[in-house]
Amino acid sequence: MSEAENPVSKRAPIHAAMQQFPVEQGELVIGGERLSLLAARVGQTPFYAYDRSLLRQRVGELRLALPAGIKLHYAMKANPMPAVVGLMAGLVDGIDVASSGELKVALDAGADAREISFAGPGKREAELRQAVASRVLINVESFRELTLLQRISDALGLPARVAVRVNPDFELKGSGMKMGGGPKQFGVDAEQLPDLLVQLARSGLAFEGFHLFAGSQNLRPESICEAQLKSYELALRLAEFAPMPVKFLNLGGGFGIPYFPGETRLDLRPIADNLARLLDRARSELPQAELVIELGRYLVGEAGVYVTRIVDRKVSRGQVYLVTDGGLNHHLSASGNFGQVIRKNYPVTIGNRAGQVEREQASVVGPLCTPLDLLADRMELPVAQEGDLAVIFQSGAYGASASPQAFLGHGPCVEVLV
Ligand SMILES: *Cc1c(COP(=O)(O)O)cnc(C)c1O
After folding, report:
1. 311 and 412 within one domain
2. Residue 100: CB within 6 Å of ligand 1?
3. What pTM, to 2 d.p., does this model score?
4. Which range marks the domain in which residue 360 is found?
């Protein structure tokens, strides 16, 4: 049967099943509590809820899947809620921060400074000083940062711990966001590394290794494996120019989660096999190096929901609109305005009507005076009324902290770890 005749191939793509939250009495259960009771406990809508047991489960499953020698870091920009960072700090091997504000949260949460690394373009002098004094690993991203670190280290009498973030000469194919390859503001171009390493050797700073990060939100294991292999081989070539043996090699991350129709969960097996081969090579080629991967959304994204209450149900020229008390002001990403090229629906449901058979096509929109404030565009949903709770899945990463909460003055949302 050809593609054209195959009725299955014509069906619209659907969202991956969202089975991480059980259903009881027709309601989603989050953190062990039925949604309506959780909403009562929180005391307001909208809110984000992150499920502790799912966070633990995710890290546990990942550890089981990956070879034991791989170190797992949490990139906290995905979800910087202090309670989440505190929980994650106890589960992973290190925390990656991207500002002095994040550094403070990580240190306050009890993360071990020796296992914190600090990356990001345009680090200010004051931030670099805080990082040196905190004894965290600093991923140097320019010649300027290296010069400043020399001065700061001299002044403090404390040699900065540095790794060099490399802008690789390749990219992570098929990524939601590319962060390496070609001209970039991140890291130092691989071609300039020999010169930088000469300056580093003269600086007296404590060189520890390399950091490579090629891209984000990738669901293709073969692309992730290819980027990891290329990162490893690039680091191996650069190690010849390094003043000291490589102790730290961060191969990046990029593990994606399914957000949109047609996307499926990442198959970890090929990635685990690939990492096992790299660990094997490193034993002889970079004997002092520990191999690190850094993940954000993969660790926390699926454990979180955004919950907003339906304030109004309207029918406009035959189209049902469920107007909620929160929208893109709290969840920019679900509205399609956080780096997406084409807007697609996140998985959405009516969380207090989870078992309901009566369904209809409806759009879920927030309360903002802009057509951009769209949380679900003509989705099939349980028939809902005023007072019901619309739930957006896959919301544990790049939600509250990545949204313009002051826009239109509706006030901030609440976040709970349950
Ligand atoms: C943003 C970022 C991450 C996390 O990306 P995810 O897609 O959330 O996994 C990891 N490392 C660096 C350097 C980043 O900038």
Report:
1. yes
2. no
3. 0.95
4. 7-50+302-417
